[in-house]
Design brief:
Layout: H1 4-9, H2 11-14, H3 21-28, E1 31-35, H4 41-51, E2 55-59, H5 86-97, E3 102-106, H6 115-119, E4 124-127, H7 132-145, E5 149-155, E6 158-164, H8 172-175, H9 178-186, H10 198-217, E7 226-231, H11 241-249, H12 252-260, E8 274-278, H13 289-295
Parallel strand pairs: 1-2, 1-4, 2-3, 4-5
Antiparallel strand pairs: 5-6, 6-7, 7-8
Bound molecules: zinc ion (ZN).
Amino acid sequence: MLKERERIRYTRHFLLDGWDEEKQEKIKNTTVFVAGAGGTGSPTITMLALLGVGRIKICDFDVFEESNKNRQFIHSISDERLGMNKAESAALTVHNINPNVEVEYYDEKFDEENVDAMVGDAQIIFDCVDRFKYKFILADCAMRKAIPMLFYGIMDYNLFGYIFNPPETACFHCLFDERKVRLIERAGCKKGDVAVMSPTLFSSAGIMMQEAVKLMVGFERPSYNTFYMGFGKRHGLLEERGMRAFRYWNTPYFNRASKQAGFDWKTRDTAEMFELMHIPKNRECPYCGLRINTVY
Ligand SMILES: [Zn+2]
């Protein structure tokens, strides 16, 4: 049940078509896991708190630094937060944004061993980590628990996103080659390497949060099997570092499906402002194929 002050707080939600107190309660009854309270985590966690999500679990082992201040506003862009663990700092901010939200934080790294316990009974995983190595760990956990993982973020001036929720959609292994990711990470992709500014981060998180609302409230089917990209700069795309990385670790299946959907990762230099590619599930995938073939 919503408290009287919550009813007032969410007045403007209730004006939305298809939204009512019952929908708001559904959001209140949702638990989510946010991996990473950095650039992507900042708008993500803020929106979850503003929406009134009942319980937010935040995991980040890192501390807030001066060079995070161009984007990580969840830490109040305050000198007092410098050196503080990001999960703890984000939890403090959530409490200030919306005291109705329960928040738990983990100031440690997650790995294959502890991820299932950390995610616990969360119904959605928000992937806000930089490194692909950790995205695989999250994606495998989401697949074991049969919950959706929202994958989104930036590559240079561009943003992207896809909802992984097999058997409705492809799985993470369908699209990305874990072996190549491990090779490139071993070759020395260092912390702080990623080129990033706030507009791309906020846009990508905003688009994905609209999908999260569909998942939480259930008034419409999410945009499954759609890989979206938004381009902040249409020229020089092929030379950008993020794009080169994608070209390297995409699976042949992902490249083929993208090409069929009208986007060629290897040659497409100029693009529309947005691309929406239909990337369906892959029945041949050794990770999710069996599950798809059993259900359908
Ligand atoms: Zn798969």
